[in-house]
Amino acid sequence: MSRPAHPIEPSSDQITKLSSSFSKVPNLTDYAGEYMRFTWRDAWRLLDGLPGEKGYNIAHEAVDRHAAGPKADKVAIRWLGKSGDRREFTYRDLSEATSRFANALINLGVLPGERVFVLMGRLPELYVAVLGALKARCVVSPLFSAFGPEPIATRVEIGDGRVLVTTLGLYRRKVESVRAKLAGLAHVILVGDETFEDAGLHAWSALMETASASFAIAPTDPEDMALLHFTSGTTGRPKGAIHVHGAIAAHHMTGIYALDLHDDDVFWCTADPGWVTGTSYGILAPLTNGVTSVVVEAEFDAQTWYSVLQRERVNVWYTAPTAIRMMMRLGSDVVKSYDLSALRFMASVGEPLNPEAVVWGQEAFGIPFHDNWWQTETGGIMIANFAALPIKPGSMGLPLPGIAAAIVRRLKNGGVDGIDTPMVEGELALRKGWPSMMRGYLNEEERYRKCFVGDWYLTGDLAKRDSDGYFWFVGRADDVIKSAGHLIGPFEVESALMEHPAVAEAAVIGIPDPTVGEVVKAFVALKPGHEPNENLRKELLGHARKRLGPAVSPKQIDFRANLPKTRSGKIMRRLLRARELGLPEGDLSTLESDEK
Ligand code: ATP
Ligand code: MG
Fold it and tell me: What pLDDT score was predicted for residue 397?
């Protein structure tokens, strides 16, 4: 059945209005030319390689090569503590500290390839531990500090953790009770200077003091496993995605192309390193590009964030739709009371960015948010709205140079067929071969194999491509609603609801219906100053019907104070659906706010 053109496609004057105005020439100006010319071989030449042609190690590219060159005294990380303290680490400082940590691991007898888990808030030691462990060629897995004991134990167990770096407080509250289960966990390193009786517990400062500050990274094959990242668990049980040292080539290039990082930029990625964004772009991409990266220990608070942007003169800012929607709740006048004149480029990832949010960015900040798309599995940004190109609000943008993206249909014989017709939905697929592609799901060979058909990696997300080559997110394959022969993507329904001035957030699911298969049901959280009532419900139903037509618009709307989300801020539609239908709730290890 044919569908009308995408209802959120912008008009051409909206596109022009949302093109950025530049205080610096963007890195990628000739998109088509660069896309044609680009090869990953050329990209590798922008990296350094270990001295003596001994391969590629992430920590060398991110830290040591700058510490050995003109950027040695440049601030690599500017850390802003919760209680107002502020510490700066130059590339030289970071190189020395990470060398100490690498030596400390080796002094403990930890071997290359062994797993080092890191569980702490955004403390400076987190950054030192991650990069130091990579120098020692251990495999690093950063965990989110708000996880409870069970999710921590499960991940350390699946990942065969040999070392855990954490704080004494977190250890007592979250690890001690499950420690007995973790037979392979030989060492727990606790940030601070207390000493311990237990042979397996070590004080960070004692280990660091006795370790040497010089370290020569041993030969590292770019295919050596470097990082183990667990997915967000939005659609089910989290998977452990394996990434290799060579991934740094993708972190480097995507930092240049998609985040438009320039040499003298101050960059801020708001994501926690417990999720892949906080590692790939909160640690690796800014460092390999030699910029100054701001790290904020405190959790989200709109006014605090605006103060950071103002005071630190942040030039490039990478954040997430959930935070943007919270800022929108407070309105644009608050934003305008800050001097954000240094801010040149704003990007967003993690969930679809509603067109409303893109336009709001322009209105409140004077520049739009640039949505980009990727996954834990892809290791880095794959599709993006670029600084120099017009934005179409609601679109994820264009594939990066070096990335071939397609819309495909799965065939009954197990193959896939490409869909070339513009705006026809199918599964988003990427051709294998970029450096930060996962090399496996840990201990889940079969699940990994199923992601590939021939040369193509199938992402599990549905999307469409327009005649200009821009990609439009439809929904996760698991979340798509099938109603009277239509495939309805939750994103377009949610975006239409978000356009109503009373709506702060919306989530849409399908519920079984004997006549049409499934009908659309929406859950809505309101902005301050709006009360849930029958009139508003009717108004929203009418608004959505007018905007989307009767086949696609929701038949039911429930009001909620909050929507259930993962700790990385993604709406968990599967949980809303399970609760609505009285089904098992499944793995809730990554659930953050609970609406019950
Ligand atoms: P799990 O795989 O465990 O269910 P998850 O898919 O949420 O969790 P992540 O790898 O953190 O785990 O998230 C990647 C997914 O997030 C993408 O596959 C996509 O569904 C969604 N996503 C990320 N960025 C965007 C974006 N810009 N627009 C739309 N969706 C996005
Ligand atoms: Mg996923």
Answer: 98
Distance of CA 101 to the CA centre of its chain: 27
Q: How far is the CA of 377 from the centre of ligand 2 (A)?
A: 8
**Which amino acid is present at 320?**
A
Ligand 1, residue 277: give the atom nearest the CA. 11
User: Cβ(385) to ligand 1 under 6 A?
Assistant: no
Report how far residue 406's alpha carbon sits from residue 404's, in angstroms, rounded to the nearest whole number: 7
- Phi, psi values for residue 341, rounded to 5°: -70, -20
- Helix (H) / strand (E) containing 107: helix 91-107
H or E stretch covering 16: helix 12-17
Complete domains list, the chain, with CATH:
16-465 (3.40.50.12780), 479-593 (3.30.300.30)
Rounded to an integer, what is the distance from CA 356 to the centroid of its chain?
A: 21
**Cα end-to-end span (Å), the chain:** 38
Q: Is 476 in the pocket of ligand 1 (CB under 6 A)?
A: yes
pTM of the entire predicted model:
0.93
CA distance 501 to 518: 28
**Angle, helices 355-365/321-330, rounded to nearest 10 degrees:** 60
pLDDT digits (tens, 9 = 90+) for 215-249: 999 999 999 999 999 998 888 888 999 999 999 99
Which ligand is nearest to the Cα of residue 379, counting in written order?
1
Contact 475, 489 (CB under 8 A): yes
Closest ligand 1 atom to 371 CA: 27
- Position of tokens 């977190």? 170
Q: Give the residues of the chain that fall short of pLDDT 70.
A: 1-22, 593-596
Q: Is 265 in the pocket of ligand 1 (CB under 6 A)?
A: no
**Residues 509-519 pLDDT 10s:** 999 999 889 99
Angle value at C-alpha 385, between 380 and 389, nearest 5 degrees: 135
Q: How far is CA 208 from CA 89, 107, 116, in A?
A: 16, 11, 16
Answer whether 215's CB lies under 8 Å from 564's CB: no
Whole-number pLDDT of residue 437: 98
Under 8 Å between Cβ of 111 and 151: no
**125 SS3 class:** helix
Nearest ligand for residue 589 CA:
1
- 281 and 247 in contact (C-beta within 8 Å)? no
Neighbours of 561 (CB within 10 A): 9
Q: Which residue of 227, 570, 575, 587 sits with most ligand 1 atoms within 8 Å of its CB, as the best mutation to test the pocket?
A: 570
